[in-house]
## 1
Amino acid sequence: MWLIVALCAALVAGCQPRDDGTWRFGLASAPLNLDPRFATDASSVRVNALIYERLVEFDAQSMPIPSLGAWDALTPTHYRVTLRTPRDVFHNGEPLTSRDVEATYRFVLDPVNSSPHRGALTIIDKIVAPNDEQVDFFLTAPDPIFPARLTLGIVPARLIASGHRFQNSPLGSGPFKFAERPDENRLRVIRSADNQPVEFITVKDPTVRVLKLLRGEIGMTQNDLQPELVRYLEDQGGIDVIRAPGTNFSYLGFNMQDPVLSRRGVREAIARGIDRNAIIQHMWGGAARRAGALLPPEHWAGTADVPNYDYDPEGARRLLKQAGYGADKPLKLTYKTSSDAFRVRLATIIQDQLKRIGIDIEIQSYDWATFYGDIKAGRFQLFSLSWVGVKSPDIFRYVFHSQSFPPEGANRGRFSDSHADYLIEAAEQGLSLEEQAHYYRLLQFYLSYQLPYVPLWFEDHVYAGRDGFRGYAIAPDGNFSALRDVLWVGKTHAD
Amino acid sequence: MIGGKTIRVWIPAALCALWVVVAATGSWLPLAPNEIHLDRILLPPSSQGLLGYDDLGRAILDRLALGAQTSFLVAAWVVTLSLLIGTTIGAVSGYVGGWVDHVVVRIIDVLLAFPGILLAIALAGVLGPGIDNVVIALSAVGWVGFARLARAQVLAQRQREHVLAAYALGAPARRILFVHVVPMILAPLIVEGTFAVAGVVIAEAGLSYLGLGVQPPEASWGSMIRDGARYMLVAPHMVLAPGVALMLVVLAVNLLGDQLRDYLDVRTRGEMQSAGA
């Protein structure tokens, strides 16, 4: 009997939120790689940005702004980056010099190291560090948006030379230093400014994450919450919820090599058959904004004037009729999606809306690996995905150029259009940002007409935290940089 | 006051009858289980929607009826297939004996040693999602129980006088087996069948919960529970309605199976009749 009582007491005690002064931040997915030279998943990139400093950051228009260093374009193919003063130091006390910058970029550019970031930097011809404060980047061709490519977290040259495993023992110069990673779902860092410990805890299930937040087992979380859960949190006492416009772009993709979907009229019918306003209002609860193009309007190369396709079921039926489809000959299409519940939910709504204009959609949901493999291989008619963290208009070449079919790029719909190629190349060859922006805007107008994608919406960023935390401001790209400035002003030190 | 017989027999019988009737007539009822109303997303039960609406604004009552159809169809198919396959294999094995019996018994032992639902999940995973494949996967593991029972019963029956008499009169083995033996073992197999129905309903819900059952927008109680679990905090009705329906049907089928077993058992039938009198 006493044993049972003791066991219950231990269980209850174990369920209580710990109050050890550590702030706990809930993540939906664990950071996969803590080495900035190799990390690509969103969770790793966001956490690494806290541990490692990079040469540039971005403003609300996705324009690069000086961070670790400021740049000067000495010639169109020669950029000089000067490190800021006072000089940064790594967490082991070593000063950060231009040699570290040079070594980091050289490592990534070396094909032997197979860094996934190499592709974005191949325009670099040569890197030279003339002194400890400056690094010269020589390019193979003029590139006005080159500074936007300087986003690698800088690691110490000495440790690169010794083959240090940053994945196991990250060491940078960022505002947070690595403390420990007891298991793959927990990562502990310490804020250098005040030695405040912060623990990132992976809780995949959003409902469980919300429950942990309400119980105080985690103190903060950001994104990856269903809109209904966000509204639920807003109604709870003791929880602050902050929303901010986001840049994650959701779209409906077409297979342009499909005999049916290669017809523009059919694609426009589908675009006009989807009531995006209703989906945003009811499913998102208003926590998204309609997208007209891949880049948000506030982006330096974006535009708010792209023609959009309003919900027009009558017009959609008319277009389908012109294409030879109607009640006697309904159009049948398959729609591939991942088995993620939210994606299936979205697919079901689109299926229902398109049924009303006479298109029978068969939904095929697969595990992520199968789904993604099919999309890359072109085995689909319709699919839906999102682009996350888009900053550079380089994305247009990657996604829409005819030479970017997978595996060379991400032109998954096999969109091949000589005029689009011309606009992409003209933009890339522009000698100023204004000229590049001009061509990219023309390209977005053209893509809006051709419709290789139906742009759906940009999801809002959502932060939820215990109301004792102050100063959390969501970054435009959804990174966690606000943790640098957060303060706890609650009654006790909350988790 | 509700009597014991009402609880044990009539309420379960009424629930099972309701399940069967809804499943059988669901296609003709004025239901709109797949009709999406975005403006009704997650609305709680009201006079407009008796069980509320799901995350796509679909009426949960209508989807519950559609789920009843799915679970009944799967249960009927799986139990029928399992009964036929299992009884045939078990009866032939028990009657023929020898190496055939050895082989069958070994196969049954291996399959019984492996968790049935795990094997069904693996099979459904290999075959791909879909209700047809759920029936195949569950039947592939469901026949074993019937085969083991049929074999044991046949081993007992084959020494009975009427079977020996038929053998002495020169009746062919097939006639002896299916005319003189199998009818004598049907009662325990039917009782086993009623318990199997409950097991299959749970298994189908489990597979659908894992995404291996019906595909959207079709409904099954398992997939409804899976969808509802994501909204337990904000819309508990989404998980309560299919959860309670599943529990009631399984409970009712099990209670009726118990009653049937007691009725068919000559040792307890007298007690039941005297209690009823």
## 2
Amino acid sequence: MAVTLTEAAAGRVKDFLQKRGAAAGLRLGVRTTGCSGMAYVLEFADEVSPDDEVFEDAGVRVIIDKKSLVYLDGTELDFAKEGLNEGFKFNNPNVKDECGCGESFTV
Amino acid sequence: MALLQISEPGQSTAPHQHRLAVGIDLGTTNSLVASVRSGVAEVLPSSEGELILPSVVRYLADGSRQVGREARDNAAADPHNSISSVKRFMGRSLAEVLATESNSPYRFVEGEGSVPRIQTASAKVTPVEVSAEILSLLRKQAEATLGGDLVGAVITVPAYFDDAQRQATKDAARLADLHVLRLLNEPTAAAIAYGLDEAAEGVVAIFDLGGGTFDISILRLNRGVFEVLATAGDTALGGDDIDHLLAEWMKQQAGIEVKDNHGLNRHILDQARAAKELLSECDEVLVEIEDSEYEWQGLLSREAFNELIEPLIKKTLSPCRRALRDADVSRDEIAAVVMVGGSTRVPLVRDNVSDFFKREVLTHIDPDRVVAIGAALQADVLAGNKADGEMLLLDVNPLSLGIETMGGLVEKIIARNTTIPTARGQEFTTYQDGQTAMALHVVQGERELVSDCRSLARFELRGFPPMVAGAARIKVTLQVDADGLLNVTATELTSGVQASIEVKPSYGLQDQEIEQMLRDSMDYAQADKDARSLREQQVEAQRVIEALDAALASDGDDFLQADELSQIQTARAAVLAVAEADDHLAIKSAIKTLETCSEAYVARRMNASVRKAMAGHNLNEYER
């Protein structure tokens, strides 16, 4: 089970991690909330708990709790620009349905 | 799908609930908007990719408006309708503006109240409306860049802005449909950008040399809160003066005497500015004047440039001295010096300031952006995108706020160290039958008795319907906004009658006084507790006796034997006797005794009133 980062995403993440400093890595996850069931978590990680899986991809230390990993397996994290706006995007093959804006989803 | 940003641990937002907040540097000459994304504060670009928006609004005859670069570029051709430096008119009356702006090109006219209006081709506009145009454009720019609506903005203002100027800035934000999370002092924003708020305490100096103005501020950091100790400056000193000086030198060198050739003057001034900017990096630059009439080239070394501008730079040092004196701190006490404003890029400025304060100056954040970046960092915290612990340090209510209750006691509603903005409410009731008004006394402090606390305001809630004591429900809400303004509202819930008042709690309070008030509350903790218990029992004794007297007067003779009455009178006298003394336990037990020997009387009254209510009614009526 694993997730991957695109080159663009890895570059930005490394940049942000370095600017913030003192982080254990990047935490990805899912939470049960939102208009369509689940929502993504994208955070700096200050600590790693025993329930976490830690792996490296494209030079980024990614931390995912075991419960979330089930929903994120095979996901690719991308960085995209839409007009002036820019940010991260989850390309998650497990998603069956998502709300209009894609911020929450069901599997 | 929506684009996500990296949050702080545990601060991921629910879908559609992103708390987008920005910091806005609303400057006299230029304005910027910045935001924190994925943990990094950065200035947001316009759709043309520009980071800096000139603070100029041009009103056209067809009712349309130009804001920013376009307006600035047309300002020379259309001086009456292109409003720049509007910040100088904010919160000022027409009389004040006319006194200081005698040679301004704008046509000031009278409006409603004393607010000045500027007659333009399309309308008469107020300074607030002009500022709102700038803020509105920045808001749209930010919303396009961040991909959503803003929950609010932190807008920076000069430390010396008074209440009227701050209020005008807030009004402008409201017109621009922008929620103000907080107005932040510009020097404080610069200090925050450099993370100086993370230190425990210390005194810092902010040296701000912009295009046209110079400000020096001395701030003291205490438990994460910046206090402005002193400000000084020169409203007519800045980078533009350097440009003019250099332009004069060029003309002199080239042997040109131009008085009224605007195009040529503009050209020389542009060359001078370019040379100045280059000299921050290079030791020597080639300056040239190229015109249909004149042609000249010359070399300018940094040394010669420094010599030329030195007198101008030295002029910044006497306000520095004055600020230090006003703040009553010595140069050695300054822990950090922050450089703000484009003109602080000039090496000679840095050297002079560094020599003056005898320390390295902070320059690594772009001095044009540092204020906006600090405001963005603050906005991020205020919008709730940081862990709670970090918020606590930022701005707290220094002393508890409460309401006076019967017996001169304080009911604390907002506890000390509560992070602001905050709002807390509590319900109170009436003390006497038929009461239709209530006096509210707002106090500040940690002690239990009103007399030991600081009185902030008094107001009255009038005109609610008469009810028996204890039936009215009066909700008192204390609300402290991010600028420390306290708003107290009292509402009688059954009738909806409302009254409110606004005060500034920290006004006029020195740090030492706050500290003293806190220390007293510790020292007198036991005494205060006893005093509170005593007052509570005294109020209770008074209430019991008043109720008893009323009852005895109406039907004492009907229900009581002479010996019972005298027993009650004895117990009543006992309560009165101890009520004035200071033993709360004695009062409590005397009240208890009085209640015990009145029990039979109370029961008889109760039965009688039930009988009276039922008299003349058939039992069947009650069985339905």
## 3
Amino acid sequence: MNTPRTTYFLALADDALISSQRLGWWISRAPQIEEDVAMANIGLDQLGQARALLSLAGAADGRSEDDLAFLRDERDFRNVCLVEREQTDFGVAMARLLVFSTWQHELYAALAHSSDAMLAAISAKAVKETAYHVDHAAHWVRRLGDGTDESHTRVQAAVEAEWPWRDELFDTDFLDPDLVADGTAVDPATLRDPVEQRLGTVLHEATLTVPQARPAYSKGRLGRHTEAMGFLLAEMQHLHRSHPGVTW
Amino acid sequence: MMLTFVTSAVTVVDVYGNDFTAPGDEPTAPSASPAGARPEEPASFVALLESEGRVEPRDEMPEGYRKTLVRQIAQHAHSEIIGMQPEGNWISRAPSLRRKAILMAKVQDEAGHGLYLYAAAETLGVDRADLLDQLHSGRQKYSSIFNYPTLTWADVGAIGWLVDGAAIVNQVPLCRCSYGPYARAMVRVCKEESFHQRQGFEILHTLSHGSDAQKAMAQDAVDRYWWPSLMMFGPPDDDSPNSAQSMAWGIKRFSNDDLRQRFIDMTVPQAEALGLTLPDTAIAWNEERGHYDHTPVDFTELFEVIRGNGPCNEQRLSHRVKAHEDGAWVREAAAAYADKQAARQSHEGAA
């Protein structure tokens, strides 16, 4: 049984892990070789964040990072649905990365002052990484938005598709208020204004329109995922689960 | 778009810095002039080679030397880029997060090697986009080893240990290649490949000391990758028509058979350390020669793979072409954006 504290750490870890899993798909499929390198790099940073956070989450009851990544079932994953959906279009990948990394950057900047020393240390490192991720995504969204007619149309459509899924990033329901009160966690609702402001600026620079979208039904924080999640986990976990108890 | 290999054209296969054709296909050595008569080599070039100096982009060089290097470096670059696929195939399924991180970093390194090598080729007056077009249209090749599938996780280990191991044996001498930019790129590539080989060995070591199923997985991978790895060095010296010219130019330093023997001598003790067997019962230490004896390699399969009939030729190329075509709108947008930015800056500058 997870404590509220563990649940919080898992939510942040799972966001990073699942986003990394989706980014890994791009390695050998990017529009140019420099971008294969960049997407691998960002995916690696996120994977590193996930490993540190999973280890932190598992420390209380002796579960390893691999136990948590490979042996939990879908309903026990706590990532937002934003990151688990398929992304085989480069415009979608960059629009999503812009949303996710901007949120992560604000989050980690705040968590660098967490009363949990380990979480603060992990966040202090991650805030530097995510600053680069935001920069990379923002550059691409500007290039695509203010590039050709085709790229403008495509990235606008990508932004429209991603926007409804960002609301869950600011959901507070899953979080025990005591964790906010004692300074461990950051209230996600407080991140909304700075994140939205930064996203709006980038979209404006990219000559894109901020969608007026209603929030998607997105309850990944409560373990209710999209249909894409089961396939993602089946692929990710299959080999590990096929050989119980061995060392890799 | 479905691409077929044009086997009647020059079918050169770069094997990480080695190149050769299948028998019956046209020879790969570029003939700089008809009837095999090569024009005089510039005196400065001859003097550089004689003094073991480095040829730099601005130096005079024979056209045949330049063409040979462009082809070899481009094919080496293509091999790195296509080589991302077989291992990339396991990124989503790596059995631990540590292994996933190492594998992502490794495949990322391969993309980086491709970038250094395309840049080295560009010093010879060619353009990366043109080289990629030649890869995509089948006019330039990549190492045949990547036309084999990665069927299990152990294949990631076998590729690191055997394929990267063979690549290193081929590439270390290229660090002393007569062409400066290629030689310098290879210094960095070899350092990273050496790390890759150790991680492949470590994957197999873990598997061969694990459960029965893991050990069987490791042995199966070594059984499948051993012979293709030996074929990476190219045909026997007697059937390698390009080698003499490349050696005279200081591009190639050792013969195919010498490099293959070096690889076998290095690998047999490592296999023993792993507790895995190599699928050749003739392997035995020959005291007199100071080398391991082995069964001669049957190149029938290699030449079939070079001709396009390997298990993954179509898959690897169409994956690469699809990525390129799917990304066209992105590259066009980046170019259009850069043009707009430049125009805005010049407008501001004029104002």
## 4
Amino acid sequence: MLSPQITEKIDYELTKYPAEQSQAAVMSALRIVQTERGWLSNESMSEVAQYLGMPEIAVMEVASFYNMYDLAPVGKYKISVCTNISCMLRNSDEIVDHLKHKLGVEFNQVSEDGKFCLKEGECMGACGGAPLMIINNHTMHEFLTPAKVDAILDELK
Amino acid sequence: MATPSAKAQAPVMTDLNGQTLVCLRTLTESQPAALATYIKLGGYQSLKRIVTEKTKATDIITEVKISGLRGRGGAGFPTGLKWSFMPRYFDGVKYLVCNTDEGEPGTFKDRDIIRYNPHQLIEGMTIAAYTLGARVGYNYIHGEIWQDYETFEAALMEAKAAGYLGENLFGTNFSFDLYAVHGYGAYICGEETALIESIEGKKGQPRFKPPFPASYGVFGRPTNVNNTESYASIPWIMQHGGAAFADLGVPNSGGSKLFSVSGHVEKPGNYEVKMGTPFVDLLAMAGGVWHGRKLKAVIPGGPSTAVVPASIMEATSMDYDSLSKARTSLGAGSMIVMDDSTCMVKTLHRLSYFFYEESCGQCTPCREGTGWVYRVLDRIVKGQGKMEDLDLLTDISKNISGRTICALGEAAATPVISFIKHFRAEFEYYIEHGKSMVESRAEQG
């Protein structure tokens, strides 16, 4: 069941749309549930479908279309590194190699202790701060260097 | 430096003469995003005047037409003309949508508007809502810039509390509600009809046009969609007049423009300059090519615009007509700079993966073609390319272009065609030797 903390946030999103258009809040609802639970299981998507009164398949379509939704566990911290052109030109490869080595994972793998998952992201719209990464979809870190990455990882307990 | 209000990495906001321009004019202040800062610069005064004096909508549209403002999201369509397409009389709610979904590599200008000058965007959208009779507005913000989304939501609350948004503004019968909504990782949602689908809670797959959003947009209602920078230019135009805005630029390219400069420069960031500014001056503002290296090539408007070799770029100015003469386009002003250590084969390989990954899958030529292009480039990069692959790549790209519902097809084709056209020798070397020409040169010292 969706917790009161979750439904309160979804209800706020619903105020943005006409009463008969509750499906419009599905993107937000999925984000809110994912933030609370770490990832989107089939059960979570069913609960969102039920809450918004929309078909389960329509929720699944959205969750599988947008690449910031995770349909499998991603550990406690999901690290998405941009490797697109502006980041690539400023040595994002070095950041990726450093993260892979440090966490002992390849892209889309979760570290053995279940703490970290490394993802290759597409353009994050902040190329002035390249190279960059986002943690758990919400916190962006720019102007990365291997030393800065170490400092950020040390903060993640 | 990742905090939304921090100015530590703030972009340069003036032109070469140190003049403060339009969309980032709050950046000279210590609290750029604050309502008080915007008010101090004359913010919301144009809105108040228009609403209380009941300025005629046609007069506002005329002023926007005089300004020469063209869509800043990439298409360059005249904003005033677009506004005139909205039906004047419609029995029901009309919508206003702002496209802050920057997902094209190298594009990050609108992010700085929502985090450093959100109120100018809010005022611009509210003036547009008044002009077009829209009752509700949405600003669709790129998923990955969550902290900036929160900055914008906070600005909305602030504007509402101060009486600049909501019911019966300034004691008149004009009401406008504006909300922030977010994407969650799909480049295609920068296409206006995909964005509308996404607002409605669906997969972001573009709609057939016509009908255009002006007649069938959000929830099937008339909707006006503009880019963030376009809306944010409106308050300045209303404050200083359309002619003054046009005079900032050059004929056919009115106003100032934000250029997102990324890649191999000393000071990447956003630079707001007058339209028609020479490329070399803009490059100098960004600190020039990094590490004292030589310029090799520039993608002037984002990867959906053609790459241009240094010699042509250095003779060009940053406006619609000059870039069109250089056989490329202004796009969203997303200037990606490449120095002489850049391997064009690997760069195109990465871009081709992006378009393959981000194709929504709806149209066969794009869904299959982008994957095909990527796989051919992938085998070239792995040393398994054949010389005929170069013509094959161009041929596939030309067959994607023009055969899709939206412009992603053209966007995916343009880099392939232009990279191979301008840097064919580098591709041939890679195929012949199974390795990169520039990297081999670097190894030989």
